[in-house]
Amino acid sequence: MGTLEVAGVLDEAVGDCGGGRMVVVEDCVETGGAFVVHYLLKRSLSASDAAVVFVAFAQPLAHYDRILRRMGCNLDAYRDRKRFQFFDVFSAADGLLDDIVLQLYGKIHGTVESFAGERPVVVIIDDISVMEIDANEALVLDFLKSCCSLSPQFGCSLVALIHGDVYSSMDQPSLLLQLEYMADVVVKVEPLATGLAADVHGQLTVSKKRNRAHDMQFRIKDSGVELFYPGTKGC
């Protein structure tokens, strides 16, 4: 089997947008997994009738707008149709004090609640590691657990990006372990185990609870991402 459509693999991983699932995208500084977040954002808006609540700690809106336009998705159009809500924490200058995090969760809860019974909702957080720079681990974990509580309450899904290698030197990386435990799906993006290759940019593993992992390799192109099974590049 040769090249795969990125849509088929990640659609299978996430499932129905209204399924109340939690997806954790775990990457590293050397091999970023932002392309997975970008794809899931586009997929949630373009391939379903879902609304997206996007919580941005890593980049401003212009960054995502530029990338999604290149992928054929106009965020402004979805925002005008009340299907895309963007919370820009990246540009906030006050840091993440307890009350600010509580206010942020209140806004997320209110937005998700406003869609209840109308359309499925996907909450996307980019990214947890940046959030933890300004807030302590306990506060971040409480915030994530509160966001997870929206799934059984309103049936929404949650997608969160975290840099796994930030915790590699810790004996017990509790935040990362807690996220992996809570997740229904873990999409892990890593460098190639065999080292650098000219036409392969990394490897991607999709793990689902009670199911075997799917191991793939990927190559990032201007038009998107190409996925393929190890050893099948060029087939």
TrEMBL record:
Q: In which pathway does it act?
A: tRNA modification; 5-methoxycarbonylmethyl-2-thiouridine-tRNA biosynthesis
The record's GO CC annotations read: elongator holoenzyme complex
CDD domains per record: Elp6 (cd19495)
Q: Which InterPro entries does the entry link to?
A: ELP6, P-loop_NTPase
Residues of the signal peptide: none
One GO-annotated biological process of the protein:
tRNA wobble uridine modification
Q: Which family does it belong to?
A: Belongs to the ELP6 family.
This chain's protein is named: Elongator complex protein 6
